[in-house]
Amino acid sequence: xxxxxxxxxxxxxxxxxxxxxxxDAEEVAQEVFVRxxxxxxAFRGDSALSTWIYRLTVNASLSHLAxxxxxxxxxxDTLADVPAAPQVSRDPALASRIERALVELPPGYRAILVxxxxxxxxxxxCAAILECRVGTCKSQLHKARARMRELLGxxxxxxx
Amino acid sequence: xxxxxxxxxxxxxxxxxxxDDRGSAVRGHLxxxxxxxxxxxxxxxxxxxxxxxxxxxxxxxxxxxxxxQLAEAEVADAxxxxxxxxxxxxxxxxxxxxxxxxxxxxxxALASSAVAVIVVVxxxxxxxxDVGQPxxxxxxxxxxxxxxxxxxxNGANRANDPKDVATEIAAVPxxxxxxxxxxxxELVALAQASRAQWPDDRKQVFxxxxxELQRAVDGATEDRPRQKAYRAxxxxxxxxTTRDEVAFANVGGL
Lengths: 160, 254
Description:
The complex is a heterodimer of chains A (about 160) and B (about 250). By secondary structure, chain A is mostly helical.
């Protein structure tokens, strides 16, 4: 059981963190792991174990947001806790801006961006996790990125 | 390809998911269009920025929290009646089994409804089709038995006589016509028995149609046209008599 926890803890916590924000990420991750361990016996194997765990994570995160209400989620406290990213080369402040813009996104867009762009899952995996068609997944990703660009404004890349 | 065509494809283009010709067309447009190139660069930077977001450290308290919650849940289970635990499990399984699938789109629902309507209409028409009078097998056999001697050879060598065989073959159409006439007489008798209970307007329609079909029979001089006219008459009489039987059955006769 502990091995399973160590195998998935980073991704589960990372997804929860970026979907619900830092304040509630630990609570949501705990809820996910409890559901995983209690539901493991009933896991039917009709999808990959990772897909099932990520689906639980996304669903728990979105349910948590729905319970909590969006207003509170984007409060100043939440934004103040967003960590900066030391590794982005072209724009040192870009990671911080992206994290802030992520918080402003609607939860559905945030989920698909986190799964595909942040965690690097394929469209097929994202579709299985979100229980939608691959085409829907792609179109949601396109809309989510467009919304992100609106929120971020010009990113300021060097086009020379 | 213009900007409106390119913008929706930028995401797929940057993810390398466009086929060669479409990817080439998008790339060609980006070489010429500053606005789309800027949008593409922004989206690429955004994608790269998202991928480069730092991995987050998992709080050291997370595992302890999971263990604590698991322990609490198990204690709660111990205090929950067994029937409630079973009911909860059954409800969860049913919810999973009847969860809407992603293929259950409105388009799928529309198509399946159309198929269902077609099947129901076809089934209705099939079950309500005009099947005619049921064949009276015993009467047919009896008639065939009665008719057979006229075709049968009287002597042992007669069947081998080409002249007799030709005569018999020539007699078949006439025999068929006679059979049709006989069947028609029976059906007319049946229909007349039913006719006695019909209202006047229906009687008039029946009489007119019967007279018309009878005229067609009488007007035919050859065997084949006459047989055809007989078949039309027989079909009509079968419909008329069957309709009464069906009406009787619908009223509750069966």
